[in-house]
Every structure is written in C-alpha cells, then in structure tokens.
Amino acid sequence: MWGLRYGELIERWARRQPHRTAIVHEDSSLTYADLGELIRRMSGTLRAAGAGRGDRIACVSENRPELLVAAYACSRVGAAFVPVNAASTGEELRFVLADTKPAVILAGAKARALRSAEMTDLPVIVDLDDWAADASPPLPDADCAEADPDDLAVICYTSGTAGKPKGVLLTHRSLHWNSFNTLLGLDIASDDVALVNTPLFHTAALNTIATNTLYKGGTLVLQQKFDAQACLDAIERFGVTTMFAVPTMLALLESHHAFDPAKLRTLRWVLSGGAPLPPDLAARWSDVGIPVIASFGLSEAGPSVTFRRPDDVARKSSSSGPPAPLTDVRILDSTGAEVPNGTPGEVVVTGPHIAAGYWNRLEATRDTFRTDGLHTGDQGYLDTDGDLVIAGRLKDTIITGGENVDPVEVEQAVLQHPAVAEAVVVGVPDPVWGQRVTAVLVTHPGETVEPEALQSYLAGRLAKYKLPRRVEQWDAIPKSSVGKIRRNEIQERLDPE
Question: Which domains can be identified in the chain, with CATH numbers?
C-alpha cells in the first residue's frame, strides 16, 4: 500500500515540494529536500552498520532533527525504531538495551557516556554529533526494505510510573491508521507551523504532532526541551499555529512575566494531553482566543483516541471529546458488560491503530490487548453526546471506609483554592479506614494552606468521606519528563502516620 511505510509520505513530499521548510531547529533549518536526503543517508549508515529487517535500533537523544531522521530511516532498512529518554538513568538505559537487544545505538552526547559506562556487549554506536559529516552514501530507493503492514516500525516504551516500563509494539499498519485517524480528528493544515518541545520519545510528540505535521507538508519548529521563555519567543518569531502542551506547561506559560496574548495571535489551537486538563485553565486560554483541545490517548493506541472540538471548550469543559473517526470507545463494568452513557467504568478502545502488544511481555499483552479491545485501565464515561469524560485511573481509586473516592474529582476541587498552584490526591494506607485521602499541594509563592482550612473550603464541594484527612505541602510534585504525575513515587514518600 502506497504511503504505508512509516515516514514514506515525508520522502514523497521531499520530491514534490523540495524547497519548502520542513524543520526549524535552533538557528538552522532543513528543507524537505534536505530532510529526504538525510533520511536516505541515515538509512545508508544503518545498512552499513549491519542493521536490517527485524532488527531494533535504539536512539538515545534529546529532541533534534536527527532523531526524526533516524525514526524514518529505520523503516527504510526494515528495522524498528526504539526511542529512549535521553535523561534515562544508567539502570533504566541498561533495562531497555537488555530488553530490545538493538543492532545499533544512535546517540548524541550520550554516546560518549555509553562508551565509558560499565555496559558490556554494546552493539555499534553511531554518534549523532559527528554523524552528518561522516554519513555513509545514501541507501538507494531500490534497496529499501519492503514494509509488511505487520512489521514493527516503532517500539515506544511507556513512562514506567509503575514497575518496569513496557515496550509498546507499533507496526506500520497501526501507525498508518493512527496518522489517518489523527489527520481526520485534528485540524492539521499544510501551512501549519507546529511547535514541539516535549520529548520525541513520547508518542504524543512523535506520532500526533511531529510526524503528522510533516505528513501534511507543514513546518515543524523543534526545541530541545520546554522552556517558557523560549517557547513564547518561538511562537512569536516563527508564527507558530499549533502545538502540544501538557497542562503544567500551559500554567507555566500563562504565569510567565513575558506572557502576552497579543504575541500569540498566530496560534490556532493547543493540543493538551498527558494529564487531566483543569477546566479553569482551559477557560483562561480560551478567553484570550486560544482554544485548548483536550484529548485522550495512550501509547498502546498509537496514541490518538479522542480530541475535543475547539468550540466545546466552554460548553463541555470536562470532556476529552468524541472518539476519532476510526476509533470506537466503549465503557465496561467489572463484569465486562457495556454500561449506558453517563455510567462510569473502564475505557476500552478498538480501531485499526491499536498496537500489536508489548515487547517480551506475553502476560501483560494478554491482560491489556484482549479480544474485545484495548483495556486502558482508565476510568471514564460517555456523556449524552457520546463524548468521553475521563475520571482517573481505575487502580488510582481510593477506597476509604468502604467508599470509593476518585482522586481526580478531589484534585479538581482542591485546585479551586486560590492559594493552590498544583495538587495531587492519593490514598495512603490507614489501619482504620483502609486508605486515607491525602492531598499533596504546591502553593503559590508566599501562600500556605492549613489542613483544617482546606477541609473547610472543600466541605461544601465534596462529600465528607472525600475530604483529604492529611495535607502535605511540597516544593514540587514529582513528574515524568512528559509531565505525567508519578503517583507511585508520591505514595512511597508518604509514609503512613
């Protein structure tokens, strides 16, 4: 099928619009012709290093054009691209390398650290800092591996907030339909200028915004990491029209001293995901003319599942939107029966974009990828319009005194307190109640919140059994590199009193 191979559409654009700007990074830019040539040269490097069909190629790098080049070049030689968090600890890195046994490792400055680290049996390492000058001759199109729809294209590791991370198996078929689904569900245009400053090892950055902007022939502004000032500068300088941001990023941007809505007028929308989007945060951005599109997705779905319509920000502030056109979402109870709209249960997803399973995790694959669909482990319900509303993780539900407490509901109520900047609610073991509802807060500078005062504030908003019985104030809430809250780490720090 034409266009099936991961990244193939970008090579087609390189022939059709060679002079159009594809990627802007730091003080340089690449045209589509440049990008296509780099993909061909990288695939030549990989083939010269012995990589071929069925191999895995690990890429340990911060955001940079070479990471995208490598992702698409892997598919030309028939190998699977394995993006790895550049901030991984030695233990985390060793785990991924041992799990996937890559034929080649691509890395920037991390390559030198890998060479000096106490790691044995390392494969060929290509240093991305030196690669461009020493690249092998381009791999001719005639020598490209012919992609089978079910061949692996990407193995994307989950963030690992609980236990060891799992490698999600994304085939050429699943990524092809994920792109088709995303381009139908999101208004990505050929003249868009998309800003990506969240890590590209994360599927939302790689397979929702970056790849699909390039698939449409638009321009990608790539930043190594998120920095509020640099982000605001880039939006104004390059006329950014779309971007992805976790809620924490949006809060940091609007609180920055340089935040000026007039300088952000080119933004058509911001896609938000990775964590629940507080309705008041979305409303404030909407008030300055920038709709924030809440979404629901996960690596196991490639990741696109739902996108909220831009004009529903005010009317349906808690919604994550309707399922994308090629996606079906059902809500099942604990017996596996489908429940009526408005009734909460587990979110189960079906569609041609669903991953093939987990790498080397047969039991986890059977548990998550079932015959009736992808069991997400997320709790939610469908509203009267069929739009999805996420209510939290099933395993995060707090059971206190025999009552179930949804931590997201409590968090949203706590965030309404004027002194609270961030909040996480978890259950801490309690010999009497089973679990004690515990709130961890980050307050605005100079503010403090006493437990009794918070309980009094929440008394009219939540049932008594949902009120936090314990309140902690921390300088920061532990998060992953993509902004996901590390609830397990928080619970480990909260020793039972």
Answer: 8-382 (3.40.50.12780), 397-493 (3.30.300.30)
